[in-house]
Amino acid sequence: MMNLKQLVLASHNAGKLKELQAMLGDSVQLRSIGEWSKVEPEETGLSFVENAILKARNASRISGLPALADDSGLAVDFLGGAPGIYSARYADGKGDAANNAKLLDALKDVPQAERGAQFVCVLALVRHADDPLPILCEGLWHGRILTAASGEHGFGYDPLFWVPEREVSSAELSPVDKNQISHRARAMDLLRQRLGLK
Ligand SMILES: O=P(O)(O)OP(=O)(O)OP(=O)(O)OC[C@H]1O[C@@H](n2cnc3c(O)ncnc32)[C@H](O)[C@@H]1O
Ligand SMILES: [Mg+2]
Q1: Closest C-alpha to ligand 1, atom 8
Q2: What's the short name of a Pfam family annotated to this entry (predicted)?
Q3: Is the CB of 13 under 6 A from ligand 1?
Q4: Residue 71 beta carbon below 6 angstroms from any ligand 1 atom
Q5: Distance CA 3, CA 146 (A)
Q6: Where are the domains of the chain?
Q7: Distance, CA 66 to ligand 1 centroid (Å)?
Q8: Of ligand 1's atoms, which has the minimum distance to the CA of residue 40?
Q9: Does 14 show up as a binding residue in the annotation?
Q10: Beta-sheet pairing, 135-145 with 67-76
Q11: Are 127 and 2 in contact (CB under 8 A)?
Q12: What does residue 168 show for φ and ψ, rounded to 5 degrees?
């Protein structure tokens, strides 16, 4: 198999790097693609899977190492699954706070029963840039969109995501707790099984 001591993470998102490295533990060192390039590839795919593969290939091409990508987002029922693959760009690249404000506004006056949402995470691992058989793993996390932000942990939409099984927002979970139950944790669990790491 491939040498998994070092894996390039095809992401410029520090929150993802932290979470994924914590889940992997010491067995695999994740190195951010930011060490090689600050340029983010355009995410032109129409699905999480396509974008994850595109980012992984790009990082592997640049670094010459096997690469792992995470394409993720928030799919809101009332919005027909939006912002979905456009979650990072929902407020036109103005960042997390603007994304959250736009989402709250889009759900203004929407009753609790219709505020269901899921976080989605697709992990793609390529052994090399032209790998014809990327390893793909997916994880979902069901919850609800709050009417106001709450909590300081995590990143992105975490302050707006109510976690029914814990009765707190995702940003109120400790990092250790989030990493046990999140969409990313579920996808990583499958990946570790696929790689024989557990
Ligand atoms: O593409 P890379 O460089 O990995 O970084 P990114 O932030 O652009 O990542 P995505 O394209 O996958 O977009 C995912 C967005 O979905 C949101 N998101 C994903 N996982 C999340 C999580 O665990 N908690 C909160 N928000 C999350 C957050 O807004 C992210 O910016
Ligand atoms: Mg992105």
Answers
A1: 88
A2: Ham1p_like
A3: yes
A4: yes
A5: 43
A6: 6-194
A7: 21
A8: 3
A9: yes
A10: unpaired
A11: yes
A12: -145, 170
